[in-house]
Amino acid sequence: GDFIGEKAEENDLVVFFFAGHGETKGSATEQMGFILPYDYNPKRHMTTSISMSTLHDISKGIKAKHMLYAMDSCFSGGILKARAVTVVPVLKVRGTYRYLKNLTENQAHVVLTAGGQNEYALEEGGSGIFTRAFLDGLSGKGDFGQRGFVTASALALYIQETVPHHLPPGAKQ
User: Does the pLDDT value for residue 52 go beyond 90?
Assistant: First the structure.
């Protein structure tokens, strides 16, 4: 947060990607999601994990108008609880230039997660199913309009359509 907060300018795009373990702690009525970095120590949970509310607080100090969170961890949907979620309708604008101009003029914080607050993120072949779909989508498979760029909504749609095909029977993510 300190490094990005100092470096990011208003018109930048900041991407926060996390693939790893996650955990939910708390009571049945009050739960908080955490991501568990490489150096996580369960005996020092509060000082070695990162809560979703801390991640939210850090993001408020970053000037960038556009932020994309991609979270491939169990219980990663907890970040949505820490954020105010707004669904923005897609603008119907003719022409690629005008379309991109409209997309980039407004502030947008987009959150893509491997699952809900109480869901596990599954792996296949040693990597997260969500991560593979995310990277494939960014590499061009999420460019449904063949325009030469991938929007966050198209990326989300690609992930949403791709992940279920790689899940074991009866699994939900």
Answer: no
Residue 1: partners with Cβ closer than 8 Å, 6 or more residues away: 58, 59, 61, 62
Residue-level length of the chain = 173
Give the Cα separation of 160 and 154 in Å (integer). 10
Give the type of residue at 116.
G
Calculate the alpha carbon distances from 166 to 66, 129, 153 in Å.
30, 7, 21
Cα 22 to Cα 77: distance, rounded to the nearest angstrom: 10
| Lookup: tokens for 36 | 């568990």
The model's pLDDT over 16-47, given as tens digits with 9 standing for 90+, comes to 999 998 888 876 677 788 899 999 999 999 99
Pairwise CA distance, residues 130 & 115, whole Å: 9
Q: Which residues of 125-161 are buried (b: 16+ CB within 10 A; e: fewer)?
A: eeebbbbbbbeebeeeebbeeeeeebbbbbbbebbee
The SS3 of residue 98 is helix
Alpha carbons 94 and 160: distance in angstroms, whole number: 26
